[in-house]
Design a protein that fits this description.
Length: 81
């Protein structure tokens, strides 16, 4: 189980690394994972194809995940337990 400090750590890291994404990846990540829009809705809002929205979201999530793992491998052990 996480204590309150550890539970907020991954979210804090996402906020830090979020700034390193490209502007378009930030937009798509915000719309999908914060606002809950699907790829079709994101595409309509940004004027891009839904497949492009999915690709941008995939790259954004992958970048965030790799950054967190590279800098904070200890977090993986918390989730494996």
């Amino acid at each position: 189980a996480f204590d309150d400090d550890a539970a907020s750590r991954p979210a804090d890291l996402i906020h830090v690394y979020f700034r390193e994404l490209t502007p378009r990846q930030r937009q798509v990540f915000e719309l999908a994972d914060i606002q809950g829009l699907n790829a079709t809705e994101i595409g309509a809002r940004l004027g891009i194809a839904p497949a492009t929205a999915r690709g941008l979201l995939l790259r954004a999530r992958r970048t965030l995940r790799l950054r967190i793992i590279a800098q904070h491998a200890d977090l993986l052990e918390d989730y494996r337990s």
